[in-house]
C-alpha cells in the first residue's frame, strides 16, 4: 500500500484537508482523515507540501503523430491544411517517426498534468505494428493510453489509413484482446467519421464495441462542409442520419459535434451519447463553436480533447477547460452560463466515463492517477481560490508532479520514464529538420 497526502485533496465531495489517499495495485483504496491512519503507515506516505492533489486530467481526443506537424500548415484553409500537411506527411511517416511523434505528444501532456490520453489512431497500414509503436511510447513515459483504433475506408485519403471492414474488425479485435488485461492500455473501435468511413464500416465498429461492452468514438459534424455534404447526400443532418441508421447509442462519443440544430440535440440527449469537445482545435481550424451549454441543459455529457498537435497547438486539458468556459460566456454574452467547476468535471471524471474506465476522480475504486499542483506557484495566487485559479489562471509551471497508476511519472520538470525530454527534442529536430512549411498559395493536388 502507498499513501499520498497534500494540503488539499480535491475529491468529488469537495476539497479535503488533513486527508490521505491510499493506493494499492494502481487503484485508490480509500480517501480518509489522516488521524484515522495507523502510525506505521506513515512510513509509506508520500507527502506533498504546499500542494493540491487533483485527479489527473483526461484528454479524450488526440492524434499523437500530428504533434510532428506543428507549424507546417498553420493559418491555412482546411483543405490546404488537410491535404498538404496531414495527408502529405501522414502518408510517409515511418514507424519510428510515429513512435517519436507519440513520445512528443504524450510528454507534453504529462508536463501539463494529463494522465490519460485517447489517441485516435489511423496510420494503421492494414495492421497493428504502428499502433503498437504508439502503445510503446505511452509505456515508455508511463502515461495511461486508450487507443481508439480507426475504421477508415474512404479512398480519397492516403492508402495507409484504409482497410476493408474485415481488416478493421479483425485487427482491432486482435489489439483489444492483446491489451485486455493491461492496466494502463485499452483499445476500442473508432469509425473515423461519416466522410471517412462507409455505413458498413461504422456499423461494424459499433457492433464490435457493443460485443466488448466498450465505447466507440467518431468525428461528427466538425466543419460546416461536413454537415452540408451529409444533408446533400441523405437529406438529413449527420446526427439525424446516424439516428435513422440506429447508430446513436449510449456508448458513442461524438468528437466535435460543432454543427447541430435543436432536433440533433434532442436526439443526442435521447440516445445517451456523449460529446468530446475540442474548443482550441475548432477555433484553430475555423470550425465554429459547439453548443455546449445547450447540450448540458439537454443532459448530454461532455468531455474534453486537445485534438492533434497541428490543430491546437498546445497539449493541455486545462487550456481546453478555460477555452470551453470562455467561448460559452462570450457566445451567450453571459458569464454565468458555465463555471470553472463544470469544465473541471469535463476534463476529469467525464473524460474517464467516455473512455469506459474508472478514472478521473479521487475516490475509492478509481485509478490512482493524480496531478499535484504547487499552491505556491505564482499562477495559483491567491491560494484560497484554487478551484477557479486552476482552470482560469494556472500555468504549466504549477504542475509539480504527475502520478499514473500509483507511480510518479513526472516531478519538478523531469519526466521519470525511460526517455528524457532532451532525447525527445533531439529526435524531433532530426526527424523534422528538412521539412518545409506549406506555401500559402499552392494549388491542391
Ligand atoms: Zn480528430
Characterise this structure.
The chain has about 450 residues and is α/β, with parallel strands linked by helices. The chain has 2 domains: about 1-55 and about 365-410, Urease, subunit C, domain 1; about 55-355, TIM Barrel (Alpha-Beta Barrel), CATH 3.20.20. Helices cover about 35% and strands about 25% of the residues. It has 15 helices and 17 strands. The protein has helices at about 80-90, 95-110, 130-140, 165-180, 200-210, 225-235, 240-245, 260-270, 280-285, 290-300, 315-330, 340-345, 350-355, 385-390, 420-430, and strands spanning about 1-10, 15, 20-25, 25-35, 45-55, 55-60, 115-120, 145-150, 185-190, 215-220, 250-255, 275, 300-305, 370-375, 400-405, 405-410, 415. The strands form 3 sheets. Strands 1, 2, 3, 4, 5, 14, 15, 16 and 17 form a 9-stranded mixed β-sheet that branches. Strands 6-7-8-9 form a 4-stranded parallel β-sheet. Strand 7 (about 115-120), helix 3 and strand 8 form a beta-alpha-beta unit. Helix 2 runs parallel beside helix 3 (about 130-140), helix 7 (about 240-245) packs across helix 8 (about 260-270) and helix 12 (about 340-345) crosses helix 14 (about 385-390). The chain is globular, with a radius of gyration of 21 Å. It starts with a strand and ends in a 13-residue tail after the last helix.
